[in-house]
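testing teh design pipeline on a random one, pls ignore if ur not involved
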């Protein structure tokens, strides 16, 4: 996956979207902003920081971060709908 495409998909995770079920968006935001953040502080070797933190404070390639978050990216219906 090209880095630009990976960055766009990762940035859209935090944005409300008509293409994604609203419940999934709420669950993701709770996971990312509350649960994952606290777990990464308590257990830094077992849990990585949330996507926004990794995008802005690490040198990890965007495509690798996207691959690690493929579960959440899979809920975006636009990738599955034919054009």
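output:
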């Amino acid at each position: 996956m090209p880095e630009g495409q990976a960055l766009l998909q990762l940035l859209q995770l935090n944005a409300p979207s008509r293409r994604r079920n609203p419940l999934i968006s709420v669950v993701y935001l709770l996971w990312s902003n509350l649960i994952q953040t606290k777990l990464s502080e308590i257990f830094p070797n077992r849990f990585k920081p949330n996507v926004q933190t990794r995008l802005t404070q690490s040198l990890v390639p965007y495509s690798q971060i996207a691959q690690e978050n493929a579960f959440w990216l899979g809920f975006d219906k636009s990738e599955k709908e034919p054009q």
